[in-house]
Amino acid sequence: MAKQRSIEILVGAFMAAALVALFFLAMKVSNLGTSPAADGYRVTARFANAGSLKVRAPVNMAGVRVGRVEDIRFDKKTYEAVVTMRIENGVDTIPDDTFANIFTAGLLGEQYVGLEPGGSENFVRDGDELTQTQSALILEQMIGQFLFSKAEEGGK
Amino acid sequence: MAFKTLRRGVRAMVNAMLDPVAELGRAGLKALAGLGRAHLLLLHLLAGSAEVVWRPRLLLAQVFNVGVLSVLIVAVSGLFVGMVLALQGFYVLSQFGAEESLGVMVAASLVRELGPVVTALLVAGRAGSALTAEIGLMKATEQLAGLEMMAVDPVRRILTPRFYGGLISMPLLVALFSAVGVLGGYFVGVGLLGVDDGAFWSQMQSKVDFREDVVNGVIKGLVFGVVVTWIALFQGYDSTPTSAGVSRATTRAVVHAALAVLALDFVLTALMFGN
């Protein structure tokens, strides 16, 4: 009987340890502890070129993450990329003339959406669209333009 | 007369030529029959699931055998795998000036691939071989036949609790392995190599997704648990009841389980992370 009890205790300890490990993986290793659950409101923005922006990329304001990219799809009528962002509920004072940019974190980093607040008194609400956008900078295009302008200078 | 001997000779020659083909066919049929028996055993095991609910003590003892007794080897292996990952990852990442991503590399590779696969291989070696030997010896010493004589179904009474024991233990061991591995990587990366503490964790958290990575890893562990225990139990139950037969069955159990886990991991990875 005592042996049975010690087996029970050890199995219980094993299961508790495994659950602690799972909790550690959930909270400390993965994003469950930091990401807001699926609450927040949706804002869309249209970009002429979304670059290599990915779903779940951060949406930053003044360098602080205020949301995540939820969906990126192609609008076949306007040939634009429609990016849906989920903004945290606490951040409810984004002016409706806010400027949405696609930036790159560092030279090789991933792309994210940067919001620059405008001066409007009206705030965006769920389902609104940010109309002022700037596309992702494509490195190859910039190099191409640079070379082109250099060549023009050289020709003069 | 001469015609008859010629015909006999030709027939013997054709027969001799067909021998290898027959050999191949026999081997194929044998393999197929084994696969069929394995699946019948699986159905039998699942049919006896109620036994586990009625006799939780049998299950408890098997969770102890497979799970608790594997904790030490799983935790120590996890620690060292995490430490080596950090050491090796630092060497590559530092060439790109991306040491801060060390946490992501260690955590993602552990949680997605190394945790489930290495744990399954360890469990196949530590617990699977023991299961096969135990069942094989029970068969060789006619204990299973004895149970049957007493109108007790040996599959339900002996094999089903072991099956569920493995099935429950594996995902838990996988979580343990990954968690200890991440800590090992942390000790080496932050403690020895001087990666920034905050960057290590924050990069990890921003790149590792709970549903996508952690949960999928644990699901992999569950699948591997089913496969490893099933193969081990089948090899024991199907072994030739002699000492040589049991030893062969034990070897086969470990080899087959390892191959099945590695092949299945590719399929699962393609399904889960392949988009």
Give an overview of the whole structure.
The complex is a heterodimer of chains A (156) and B (275). Chain A is 29% helix and 31% strand. The longest helix of chain A has 28 residues. Chain A is an alpha/beta fold and 156 residues long. Chain A has an eight-stranded mixed sheet, with no helix packed on it. Chain A has two domains: 34 residues; 103 residues, no CATH class. Chain A has two helices and eight strands, in the order αββββββββα. Chain A is elongated and about 95 Å long. In chain A, a hairpin with a 2-residue loop joins strand 2 and strand 3. With 275 residues, chain B is mainly α. Chain B has one domain. Chain B is built from ten helices and no strands. In chain B, helix 7 packs across helix 9. Chain B is globular. The model of chain B has no long low-confidence stretch (mean pLDDT 90). Chains A and B meet through helix 1 of A and helix 3, helix 7, helix 8 and helix 9 of B.
Question: How many strands, which pairing sense, and closed or not: the largest β-sheet of chain B?
Answer: none
Low-confidence stretches of chain B: none
Compute the number of structural domains of chain B: 1
Major beta sheet summary of chain A: 8 strands, mixed
User: Structural class of the helix and strand makeup of chain B?
Assistant: mainly alpha
What sequence of helices (H) and strands (E) makes up the elements of chain A? HEEEEEEEEH
H/E element order of chain B: HHHHHHHHHH
Report helical residue fraction of chain A. Answer: 25-40%
Sheet with the most strands: spatial strand order of chain A: 7-1-4-3-2-6-5-8
Q: Write down how many β-strands of chain A occur, each being a DSSP E stretch of 2 or more residues.
A: 8
